[in-house]
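Deliverable D2.4 — example input (structure tokens):
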């Protein structure tokens, strides 16, 4: 029986177009999904769009559009990533889907039955950009540092609250018993410190007459669910909860990728909500860093957004996947993007690296009747599995690129083009090694660069090669 593996991204807000920060997250998830399929696992890969809340409501009003029609248009931009980045997701969950709405309402009722939802008046400072409450310590000069061009709103109304404070000890016990729940460790320590300092109950609804765009609270048509409460349910609604529990139980728990600005919501608030709803197991959360452009976190309000389409037009799909995956050396760290840097990396690693070694080996093998079977390397396979388990995909690629450098040096040292004229036996022995190594490189690249891997495999069969990665003139 095949192992089952479930991976999900967070759902990005539908109102902004996809940028390379989310493109990195979804490519990482795609690479891991493809790797597990390669291992023979049965995989379910979920992504989608978060479509409720004040940001979406305000933008639709500004444009004079029906909110659902606006969401339909914007969701397509994220669905288009499937072809644009050659993604293999199985599910695209929209939080306006009827099944998801029903699941969110059932989840609410289970938390309510557990005694964890109550109503009270409150007054808070609120950032619409983050869709989060802000304290004075969160603000810089009265503004949210992540959305400095947006005014902080004051919310003063009666809403429903979730008894987050009830779950402090249970969360700390859960963290102690699940040492890999959040990766990297630095982010896990932040979550544990946050919970250990004490938890405050948080609002999970909004007055419908002020902000109507949301899932209606069961039994109270005057209130809609707070966007975070509704959206997080997608991780379980996508695999059939609550209607198809047999399917749900086959896939749950999940592996999830999230940005570091989602740390508390994904690994503390949501986990407490799962406890409340009677779903004890949880996903494993991998926390990404920010992609910085021009020394600042990329954001629409700062005008420094780079789209995945920008990279694809310049470098192509597989090269874009590679460049995104190698923006940082270690998972979870912030990454700096500049056009100069990625162009230099493209030329060094792809045009002069992978493309060059493929071309050299295939040209040397032209006319030879030598099979290109893969020579298995258990040590490399074990190293790859370890890197994937820790989401260190950039480090996993380094294993492949060390092979490229080693084989390039091997060609230069052995000079097979000379041996071809003087010692055919030695020449064929060298070529057998090189062809086997290139076959292994292609196989290891399947999750990362699937089209390129296929091109290399075809070149190994036909002993003919096209230029895979033409050199690009550096940005000046």
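Example output (designed residues):
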């Amino acid at each position: 029986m095949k192992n089952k593996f479930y991976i999900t991204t967070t759902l990005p807000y539908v109102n902004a177009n996809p940028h390379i920060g989310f493109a990195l997250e979804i490519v990482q998830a795609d690479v891991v999904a493809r790797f597990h399929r390669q291992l023979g696992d049965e995989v379910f890969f979920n992504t989608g769009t978060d479509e409720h809340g004040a940001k979406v409501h305000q933008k639709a009003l500004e444009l004079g559009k029906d909110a659902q029609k606006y969401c339909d248009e914007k969701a397509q931009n994220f669905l288009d990533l499937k072809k644009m980045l050659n993604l293999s997701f199985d599910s695209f969950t929209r939080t306006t889907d009827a099944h998801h709405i029903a699941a969110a309402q059932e989840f609410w009722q289970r938390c309510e039955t557990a005694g964890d939802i109550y109503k009270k008046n409150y007054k808070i400072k609120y950032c619409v950009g983050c869709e989060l409450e802000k304290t004075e310590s969160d603000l810089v000069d009265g503004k949210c540092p992540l959305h400095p061009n947006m005014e902080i709103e004051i919310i003063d109304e009666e809403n429903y609250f979730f008894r987050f404070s009830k779950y402090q000890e249970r969360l700390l016990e859960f963290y102690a018993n699940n040492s890999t729940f959040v990766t990297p460790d630095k982010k896990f320590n932040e979550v544990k410190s946050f919970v250990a300092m004490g938890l405050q109950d948080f609002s999970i609804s909004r007055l419908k007459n002020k902000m109507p765009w949301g899932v209606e609270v069961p039994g109270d048509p005057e209130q809609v669910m707070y966007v975070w409460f509704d959206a997080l349910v997608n991780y379980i609604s996508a695999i059939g909860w609550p209607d198809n529990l047999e399917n749900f139980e086959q896939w749950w728990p999940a592996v999830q990728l999230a940005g570091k600005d989602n740390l508390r919501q994904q690994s503390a608030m949501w986990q407490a909500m799962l406890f409340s709803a009677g779903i004890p197991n949880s996903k494993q959360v991998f926390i990404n860093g920010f992609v910085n452009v021009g020394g600042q976190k990329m954001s629409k309000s700062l005008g420094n957004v780079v789209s995945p389409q920008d990279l694809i037009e310049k470098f192509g799909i597989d090269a874009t996947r590679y460049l995104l995956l190698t923006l940082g050396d270690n998972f979870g760290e912030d990454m700096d993007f500049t056009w100069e840097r990625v162009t230099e990396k493209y030329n060094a690693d792809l045009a002069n690296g992978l493309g060059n070694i493929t071309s050299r080996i295939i040209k040397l093998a032209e006319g030879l009747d030598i099979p290109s079977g893969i020579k298995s390397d258990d040590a490399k396979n074990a190293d790859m599995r370890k890197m994937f388990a820790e989401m260190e995909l950039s480090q996993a690629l380094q294993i492949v690129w060390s092979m490229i450098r080693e084989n390039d040096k091997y060609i230069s040292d052995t000079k097979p083009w000379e041996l071809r004229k003087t010692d055919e036996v030695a020449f064929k022995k060298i070529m057998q090694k090189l062809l086997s190594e290139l076959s292994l490189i292609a196989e290891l690249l399947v999750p990362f660069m699937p089209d390129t891997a296929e091109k290399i495999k075809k070149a190994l069969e036909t002993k003919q090669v096209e230029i895979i990665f033409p050199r690009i003139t550096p940005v000046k």
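The longest strand covers residues 117-127.
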